[in-house]
Write a structure and sequence with these properties.
This is Major facilitator superfamily (MFS) profile domain-containing protein. With 433 residues, the chain is mostly helical. The protein has 20 helices and 2 strands.
Length: 433
């Protein structure tokens, strides 16, 4: 059964005079504002993948500086990934309950503290613990970006906005190793964490000054003012200058706020669990390729940190192409199914999902890409096992694998099933996937 919100947004209701009136728009934000918020969410989502990618060129240098083995340094990647899986489930609940802005501030404050500690630490144990904290702060930003997109775009339009919001998380694996290689080569490994600190401060200031709250539990379609403490500073200054425009403190109190552990309830359904397990296998295999590449390049080809970073460009290019293509494919398939069922898609109106095969429309795009990704992994292993592996062929296979696996993960994550009523919030659902 469709939720009450969906009915309110997709069904024509009767006015007090008995006449038929149009329902309110899904969002009051205009196209420029929606694109702007998607871009800011994209830059914020850069935090999670860049924290991983920027670290790879420094693995050997860190092992030497901290007087430990490369295997121990690789363990810090494993612990980072564990928290990368756990943290978004809690960030998602906090975001749907208290708003996107407070969740962003929480993430970046933790992230700044962790990066400062990493830049100053001198022991392996401190590195291990602070990498966990760094992951806890950065990992929720990707799910937050998906939540922002869900707030301001309807299902039929969501693919193109997610394509924008995902750009930051796509650029991370490409720019991260490049930035890390340059910083390690010219400034030393500590510089990579100071760089992340500066980036975090810029993001906090941008969100605090300019970006409004978009969470639909707080502001509805954007027409309900949030709490005063949750208003951008620019808006506060404007309201003080205009006494006729007070800043209200009301929220949508009539709606049941989601629990901060809502994502754990979603994961209990077998459909969601299958998608989580599927995404986990994809992510695990992909990160194995990412983490193993620096050591192979340094031992086999004797590359320095800059050259190692450059070899990640094909993988990053695959991610960029994947996200731009798959968003359009998902929108096209959604519209194809709607036309087949005789459902009319109205601009800026949410379409009811009752009787609509949402999961099928998404997974039809995902499965062919999964097969392609699996096919490219095996020959890559054979090529790199050779005594003198042809590097161009290996990088081409990495490009194909990156394109297919990331495209399939993106298309399958948008098919995260909805739990039984009350329906989960978009941020929480995204955190589950």
């Amino acid at each position: 059964m469709a939720s009450s919100d969906e009915k309110h947004e997709s069904v024509i209701s009767s006015g007090e005079s008995g006449g038929v009136v149009e329902p309110p728009p899904y969002t009051v934000f205009n196209r420029f504002e929606r694109v702007l918020y998607a871009w800011v969410a994209s830059v914020a989502a850069f935090a999670s993948p860049v924290s991983t990618g920027i670290y790879y060129p420094a693995l050997t240098v860190l092992a030497t500086a901290l007087d430990t083995s490369l295997q121990n340094i690789n363990l810090s990647i494993t612990t980072y990934m564990i928290f990368q899986a756990i943290a978004p489930t809690f960030v998602g609940g906090v975001s749907d309950r208290y708003g996107r802005r407070p969740a962003y501030f929480m993430c970046f404050v933790i992230y700044i503290a962790a990066n400062t500690g990493l830049a100053l630490q001198t022991s392996y144990v401190a590195l291990l613990l602070l990498r966990m904290l760094q992951s806890a702060g950065s990992s929720g930003t990707i799910a937050l970006s998906n939540g922002v997109v869900s707030d301001v775009s309807t299902r039929s339009q969501r693919g193109k906005y997610i394509g924008i919001a995902a750009l930051g998380s796509n650029l991370g694996p490409t720019l991260g190793p490049l930035i890390g290689g340059l910083l390690v080569h010219f400034q030393g490994w500590r510089a990579i964490f100071w760089f992340l600190d500066i980036y975090s401060l810029v993001m906090i200031l941008t969100i605090a000054l300019f970006i409004p709250e978009t969470c639909r539990n707080i502001v509805g379609n954007g027409g309900v003012p949030p709490q005063r403490w949750n208003v951008p500073l620019i808006s506060l200054l404007r309201s003080r200058g205009n006494k006729n425009t007070p800043v209200a403190t009301s929220t949508l109190s009539h709606k049941k706020r989601p629990s901060i552990i809502e994502s754990l309830h979603i994961a209990r359904s077998k459909e969601a669990f299958c998608l989580i397990f599927f995404s986990g296998l994809q992510a695990g295999g992909y990160f194995i390729l990412l983490a193993g590449l620096p050591t192979q390049l340094e031992t086999t080809f004797h590359y320095n940190s800059i050259q190692v970073g450059l070899c990640y460009i094909p993988m990053g290019a695959g991610i960029l192409i994947a996200r731009q293509i798959v968003g359009r494919l998902i929108d096209f398939n959604f519209q194809r199914h709607a036309k087949k069922l005789g459902i009319q898609l109205v601009k800026n109106r949410q379409t009811s999902t009752e009787g609509f095969p949402v999961e099928r429309a998404r997974l039809e795009v995902a499965f062919p890409l999964v097969y392609l990704g699996c096919i490219t992994v095996v020959p890559y292993g054979w090529v790199m096992h050779l005594q003198k592996p042809p590097l161009p062929l290996a990088l081409f296979l990495l490009f194909c694998n990156s394109l297919s696996m990331n495209a399939s993960k993106f298309s399958s994550s948008t098919a995260t099933p909805r739990a039984p009523p009350p329906p989960p919030q978009p941020q929480t659902s995204s955190a589950v996937s």
